[in-house]
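does this look right to u?? flavin-adenine dinucleotide version
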Amino acid sequence: MVINVIGGGLAGSEACYYLAKKGYNVRLFDIKPDKFTPAHCNVNYGELVCSNSLKSSDVYGNACGLLKQELLDLGSFVLRVALLTKVPAGNALAVDREEFARKITEGLKSFPNVEFICKDVTEINFDEPTIIATGPLTTEGLSDFIRKNFSDGLYFYDAEAPIIAGDSIDFSEAFICDRYGEVGSGDYVNCPIDKEGYTAFYEALITAGRATKHAFENEDVKVFEGCMPVEVMAERGFDTLRFGPLKPAGLTDPRTGRWPYACMQLRKENESGTMYNIVGFQTNLLWGEQKRVFSMFPALKNAEFLRYGVMHRNTYIYAPAVLDKDFSVKAHPLCYFAGQITGVEGYVESIGSGLIAAISLDRKLKNKPAVDFTDTTVIGALAAYCSRENADFQPMNANYGILRPVADTRDKKLKKKLMGERSLAKIKEISEIINE
Ligand SMILES: Cc1cc2nc3c(=O)[nH]c(=O)nc-3n(C[C@H](O)[C@H](O)[C@H](O)COP(=O)(O)OP(=O)(O)OC[C@H]3O[C@@H](n4cnc5c(N)ncnc54)[C@H](O)[C@@H]3O)c2cc1C
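got this back:
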């Protein structure tokens, strides 16, 4: 049995190692070392394209820290290499990127059953077991093939608004109602601001620090038309936002009986209301600046940002229509997607999806029952998020908002601890099943 892994980035390297260790013959395809995407430059596999940080290591206080522990407990090869090559970075896990990629490549090359093929893959044979892990900068030929085969689409750009933790919104400074309606469904939370507050917000917004873009990200200007960053829109004039995403018309504040001067709307991201996105607030501001400026709305003064807004080139499929919750393609069960192309966002999240895809494919090929990571684990919750119906699907990173809530507690520290313990207990159970 030969398995194809397309892409030797973070997800592909993780999947390749797992499957090779299980004894399969694996063909690992990459355009490297002959060619590189615009963000890659290292001939080795497992290259970190930007920051050298895999974020927080706090297992019981940070969702990405918990995700890392889950993956380590499941035997992640790539994270083991990260620990071996770590450099001091406080509470974060940062690595020596050269050593990291070198050791990943060395680990993969230690298998006689892995064949390394340098090729720009442009089509997939759905009858062969395959994991597609070509990342956010998947080459053009394969992107075309994916677009043609999955009519529900392929996105090339992320324009994401920030997501706020529901329990960090100050509801005494907000109200729930539909535009021109009476009492709303509760899906929208309206956050008013008065003239003085709006003026200060406006000044802060247009002067706030912006993230720099890579040269290749300026190519496709057309994609921006429907999703202009809020700070760029604001530059058109003082009142532009009051006729756009901060339009107050029809939103009667029950405390004053009037429409506010300007009004931000938050929309539920999930049914339980643990996450809300800021409607129409796609942004390219630096993350710290988003917190500083958007928290000027009274209802957001203590807001916890679960995910910051980003705008960058990112190829990803419309996973809810295409994928099952083990990252396999609904219409082609031997084919899996893994990594950022599935709609997970971030290094560790990509590694995790590579591991889930590999574990699931192995079990499928052996006719063993699938394991359900459930939404009590961070990796399972990410997989569930990607495969759940969602007309407004956008990439997602590890955060507590996607996990199944625990018993109602206002103590956030305790809540995170309980979620962590529940997750690692589930992972232990799953590890025993997959290693039996
Ligand atoms: C510019 C940029 C900066 C980022 N910075 C960060 C960051 O700082 N922190 C963070 O957590 N996340 C970051 N991300 C997001 C994401 O976590 C990383 O892109 C991550 O590397 C994704 O892992 P992956 O395995 O899905 O893809 P990749 O690691 O990109 O691996 C994909 C591999 O597939 C190969 N490939 C592509 N097309 C083909 C093809 N047709 N045939 C064969 N091989 C192919 C590529 O050469 C590459 O080796 C960034 C993304 C981008 C684009």
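The two ends are 21 Å apart (CA to CA). idk if thats expected tbh
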